[in-house]
Amino acid sequence: MTLPTAIRLARPEITLAVCRGACRLMRQAGHSVLLEVPLPDGRRADIFALGRGGEITIVEVKSSIEDWRVDEKWPDYLSWCDQLYFAVPVDFPQALISDEVGLIVADAYGGELLRPSPRRPMAAARRKSLLIDCARLASERLARLEDPDFVELL
Hints:
alpha/beta; 3 helices; globular; disordered N terminus
């Protein structure tokens, strides 16, 4: 999963590559994935993965040390998922990532789970509300793909 030295990616490309690889890993594990999901508290999950049993996993993508250091809000995600992961590029200093969350290393071709996330079951009412919001978001996104002139009525 390492890139040849001759190929250097800018930060936005690294973010996209890590996101793609982490999404592939989540899908291989049987999860359905939505990107850039707004949460009720105003946060936004980079990757929102829904398991077959309704379990919710959030994956936050960090492309650099600077990206990690400015993110002081990551503990806020814990109340919106059953598991929280960080997905980072191969050359990211993994010791920076807290043991309170899982760790994924990824590139554009795939990802590898290096450390599982502790499970913290969500409250049933919060899960139901979040699942409804995500179903509506996915439906709206699909409608925009199928009908470029789609006008949101809500």
